[in-house]
């Protein structure tokens, strides 16, 4: 027998209605119908607009306030389907699979013209996207141009949450054991050389899981997969040869919906199938012990500044969702035109709801937050000492096992690397690690002492937080690739159409005598050695290493350090490089295996430079060309250290030793080797100065050194020895 509260109480043009439930927000399938709930503090009225999927004209528009006939048709009464500031109603007997929906909002103030400031931007002629939509139609097929006259470009859809996860759950791998691979969903398989059935899709990535496993990474960090509009800045490149678009996706439209254009099933216009395709990918990655992180953009949206489009939040409650100046313009701490008002209680709840949804419904293991310092600004833009949003994320019970990673800076000049409010939970992209390693690698002076801090997990930055707070990276999506870091002195972004004004200028790169590709064998060999040096140092560092997709095979972007707008080979992974640069790939894979084999490289807490287990050796000791005498002088380009494996974390003590020496000088140096306890002997794992394949061994098959007392290290080279 049905409960009485599932029965309709009113009707409107043959649609049966009743008061809805104000929470959860969005469209929720309930017994007999769909519950719609949307917040607006300042709107005076709201209208629900229902479409059949793909149709230009709505099927019905139902106001939330007005005279409605009662279900028995004997009379009508005034009904206000609203509770507090939430418009909510349940509509019965809807076809969930063919339904698309949106809202119209009415409110105070005159209609604001595009390009003009204004606190309220209510326009009842505009159909608005539900911020809580679990699926969004309109960009179902990547790059397909929409009908310009279509009155409602981005449409909310319903999703069945009935996916069979079997026994899957988030992996909860200790963060210090992760090797993160930052990748673009489309870019990994879009290149013709990928050989997959559905290039550029979630499905295609499943075909590349064996490659990820063989590489050795155990976490993929997906660049934005929340629904965005790749056509938002659609224009020709300067030479008119191709279109440019928002390829990277750092311009969110919906915080709850996966990007439909990344799905092989997207062209079927079925939101549930898109969601299930992504969930299937995550389930398969988990089966292979690979965690999944999402790069989330909570600091701004795709609605832009005063001249941008009205899609959702701007028309629902502009004054609540965005930071505004005193004259009604958009604050721009994001550098993209607007800034989300993250610490407004309603906005804060929406962002938390989003994370909870992805953690629970998609089994996401962690989140990286773009321009995360914005999440710590108050409603006037001032940095908060105790930001409520960051604190709630840290202590939220649903997110308790998720990794939280901050990009601890923003476009407004707030730089908090080492000082981001952490609550014992947050890790950070360590921008100082990137810059220090790049400068030390190319031979800048004054970097030896700084480099030692980075190798130890940056205790100068994260003294109370431990080494695992440091996400170490040399390159990421934003900036040069590893190949370009050693191939270009200057950025070459002309193809972006902004006259080379975009992108960072301080790349700490060096071309070694020729700008770009070269046939000079000496320069080519030096560049390859420097790529290996960089990867070796990354894998030797305490903290959590992150690799940019394609760096392991020497991918180039032709000197473009900001190719956000290119859906082409500048961004696509070129699978032919697995053969043409197999030497570098083999080196990177063996470095990863080596890191996994040695717990002393993966400490959660900071090394102390003390012997606290009675081994006769400190957990880490620093050396120079002479044992026990590191050169911290300004002109030093050498550095060496010894790790005692008996100080590895509890339960994983290994009675071996790791010695690493870095010579970034342009001259060779002979390094004295620390003495080992008998009967241990030094064996060579890496010497980047040697020709391949002798430059690196398979871990476990290191070659015994003939000379146990010293090692001559060539210019710009790294050596790694194992004592066992």
TrEMBL record:
Q: What SMART domains does the database record attribute to this sequence?
A: Aamy
Q: GO MF terms on file?
A: amylo-alpha-1,6-glucosidase activity; isoamylase activity
Protein's name according to its UniProt entry: Glycogen debranching enzyme
Keyword field: Glycosidase, Hydrolase, Transit peptide
> Biological process (GO) annotations?
glycogen catabolic process
- Write down the CDD domains for this protein, in alphabetical order: AmyAc_Glg_debranch, E_set_GDE_N
Tell me the ranges covered by the Glycosyl hydrolase family 13 catalytic domain, including all copies.
182-595
Family membership: Belongs to the glycosyl hydrolase 13 family.
């Amino acid at each position: 027998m049905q409960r009485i509260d599932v029965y309709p109480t009113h009707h409107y043009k043959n649609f049966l209605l009743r008061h809805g439930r104000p929470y959860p927000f969005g469209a929720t399938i309930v017994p007999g119908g769909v519950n719609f709930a949307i917040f607006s503090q300042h709107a005076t009225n709201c209208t629900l607009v229902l479409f059949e999927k793909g149709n230009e004209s709505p099927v019905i528009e139902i106001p939330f306030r007005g005279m409605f006939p009662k279900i028995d048709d004997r009379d009508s009464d005034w009904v206000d389907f609203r509770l507090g500031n939430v418009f909510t109603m349940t509509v019965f007997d809807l076809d969930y699979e063919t339904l698309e929906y949106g809202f119209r909002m009415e409110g105070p103030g005159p209609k604001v013209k595009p390009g003009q400031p204004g606190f309220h931007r209510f326009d009842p002629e505009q159909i608005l996207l539900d911020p809580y939509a679990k699926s969004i139609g309109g960009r179902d097929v990547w790059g397909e141009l929409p009908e310009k006259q279509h009155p409602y470009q981005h449409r909310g859809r319903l999703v069945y949450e009935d996916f069979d996860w079997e026994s899957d759950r988030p992996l909860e791998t200790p963060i210090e054991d992760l090797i993160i691979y930052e990748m673009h969903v489309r870019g990994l398989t879009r290149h013709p050389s990928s050989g997959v059935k559905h290039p550029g899709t979630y499905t295609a990535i499943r075909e590349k899981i064996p490659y990820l496993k063989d590489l050795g990474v155990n976490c993929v960090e997906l660049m934005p997969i929340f629904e965005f509009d790749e056509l938002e800045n659609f224009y020709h490149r300067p030479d008119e040869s191709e279109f440019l678009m928002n390829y990277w996706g750092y311009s969110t439209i919906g915080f709850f919906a996966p990007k439909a254009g990344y799905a092989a099933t997207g062209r079927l216009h079925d939101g549930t199938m898109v969601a299930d395709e992504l969930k299937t990918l995550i389930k398969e990655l988990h089966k292979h012990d690979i965690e999944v992180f999402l790069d989330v953009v909570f600091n701004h949206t795709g609605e832009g500044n005063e001249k941008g489009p009205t899609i959702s939040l701007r028309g629902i409650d502009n004054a609540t969702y965005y930071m505004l100046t005193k004259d009604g313009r958009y604050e721009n701490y994001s550098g993209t035109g607007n800034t989300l008002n993250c610490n407004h209680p309603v906005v804060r709840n929406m962002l938390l709801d989003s994370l909870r949804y992805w953690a629970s419904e998609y089994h996401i293991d962690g989140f990286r937050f773009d321009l995360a310092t914005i999440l710590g600004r108050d409603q006037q833009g001032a940095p908060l000492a105790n930001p409520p949003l960051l604190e709630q994320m840290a202590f939220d019970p649903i997110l308790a096992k998720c990794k939280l990673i901050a990009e601890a800076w923003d476009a407004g000049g707030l730089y908090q690397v080492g000082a981001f409010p952490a609550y014992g939970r947050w890790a950070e992209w360590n921008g100082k690690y990137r810059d220090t390693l790049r400068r030390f690698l190319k031979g800048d002076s004054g970097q030896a002492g700084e480099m030692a801090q980075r190798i130890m997990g940056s205790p100068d930055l994260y003294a109370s937080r431990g080494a695992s707070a440091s996400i170490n990276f040399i390159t990421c999506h934003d900036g040069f690739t590893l190949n370009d870091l050693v191939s270009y002195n200057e950025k070459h972004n002309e193809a972006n159409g902004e006259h080379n004004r975009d992108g960072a200028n301080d790349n700490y790169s060096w071309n070694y005598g020729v700008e770009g590709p070269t046939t000079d064998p000496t320069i080519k060999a030096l560049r390859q050695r420097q790529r290996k040096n960089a990867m070796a140092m990354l894998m030797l560092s305490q903290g959590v290493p992150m690799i940019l997709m394609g760096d392991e095979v020497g991918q180039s972007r032709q000197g473009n350090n900001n190719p956000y707008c290119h859906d082409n080979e500048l961004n696509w992974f070129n699978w032919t490089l697995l053969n043409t640069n197999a030497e570098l790939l083999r080196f990177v894979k063996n470095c990863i295996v080596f890191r996994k084999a040695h717990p002393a490289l993966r400490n959660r807490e900071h090394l102390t430079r003390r012997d606290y287990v009675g081994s006769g050796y400190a957990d880490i000791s620093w050396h120079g060309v002479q044992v026990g005498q590191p050169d911290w002088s300004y002109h030093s380009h050498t550095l060496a250290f010894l790790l005692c494996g008996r100080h590895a974390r509890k339960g994983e003590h290994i009675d071996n030793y790791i010695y690493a020496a870095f010579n970034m000088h342009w001259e060779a140096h002979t390094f004295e080797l620390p003495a080992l306890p008998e009967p241990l002997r030094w064996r060579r794992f890496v010497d980047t100065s040697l020709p391949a394949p002798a430059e690196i061994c398979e871990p476990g098959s290191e070659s015994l050194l003939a000379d146990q007392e010293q090692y001559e290290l060539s210019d710009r080279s790294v050596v790694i020895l194992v004592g066992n």
